[in-house]
Amino acid sequence: MGVPDAVGRSVLKPDTAMVSTFLGSAAKSTSHDSPYRSRRRLRTGRHFALAAPRPQGARIGNVLFSEGDPADEVFEVLKGAVVVSRSLTGGRRQIIDIVGPGRMVGFTARRAHECTAIALTAAELIAFDRNSAQNWKDEDLDFNTAVLTEIDRLRRLVSLLGRKTAIERLATFLADLMGDRKGPQVVRLLLSRQEIADHLGLAVETVSRGFLALKQRGIIERARRTSITVLDGSALRGIGAGDGETIA
Q1: 40: which residues sit within 8 A by CB, 6+ positions away?
Q2: Which of 95, 102, 176, 216 could bond 198 through an S-S bridge, CB–CB 3.0 to 4.6 Å?
Q3: Of 163 and 36, which is predicted with more confidence?
């Protein structure tokens, strides 16, 4: 099962080398680096792997869960990355999150998943029984930390989609890819233009105009399909914070 673009082709690119750039230092985490997993649960979870998406042909083995599947388990990503999306009316979708090593995915208050999670690269995960996870005691308060972390990320996404302009959304997205690094740098993109649009709640044409506007302002060089060169990170972060830049 894949995530199709407007003409039905797969648009997720299985470039594992890009994960560390897209997800920052978290992508370099090992299975022991998670801030909210006890050693005991390392032994009790069900370890498994998801295959990387194939550049061509049918996708096999890379779906973690689909909308409507029973939500009996929660998952921690040990290696690789998982993209979480939700279907909307009219064939549209919203990319909600890209989950990298050390984070958990699959939280829901319902009995069935309302989102779909698919491997963006080859991935290794641990599955935990949902009911057992909800009953982790004092020595395992990390489950609460994981839930609060996801709430914070969703609040940030709500702010991004609800209050920021198109150029501010794109600038915030690109600034997040940069992390705290200074100076000009090449930033690799795991997502296609269509997927970036799906994540930011924009039309793909608006995303393309945003890249052009940033180039014309000397903030980035010409954006390539899988990477961009950021020339002025401070200006990029300033636009993301809302300095009045707009796209005509």
Answers
A1: 139, 140
A2: 95
A3: 163
pLDDT in tens, 132-161: 776 665 445 467 777 878 888 778 777 777
Nearest to 226 by CA among 10, 3, 19: 19
How is residue 248 annotated by DSSP? -
Domains 16-163 and 166-241 share a fold: no
* Residue range 22-37, pLDDT digits in tens: 444 334 444 445 544 5
pLDDT band, residue 39 (cuts 50/70/90) = very low
b (16+ CB within 10 A) / e for 60-99: eebbbbeeebebebbbbbbbbbbbbbeeeeeeebbbbbbb
Global pTM reads 0.66
Closest to 206 in 3D by CA, of 238, 167, 172? 167
* Alpha-carbon distances of 220 from 177, 192, 203, 229, 235, rounded to whole Å: 13, 17, 21, 6, 10
Written out in words, the top-level CATH class of the domain with range 16-163 is: mainly beta
Q: Kindly report the CATH number that applies to the domain delimited by 166-241.
A: 1.10.10.10
What are the residues whose beta carbons fall under 8 Å from the beta carbon of 157, sequence distance 6 or more? 96, 97
> Domain limits of the chain?
16-163, 166-241
- Using CA of residue 188, residue 230, residue 173, residue 148, what is the dihedral sign? positive
Residue identified by tokens 């899988």 is 226
| 246 or 232, greater pLDDT | 232
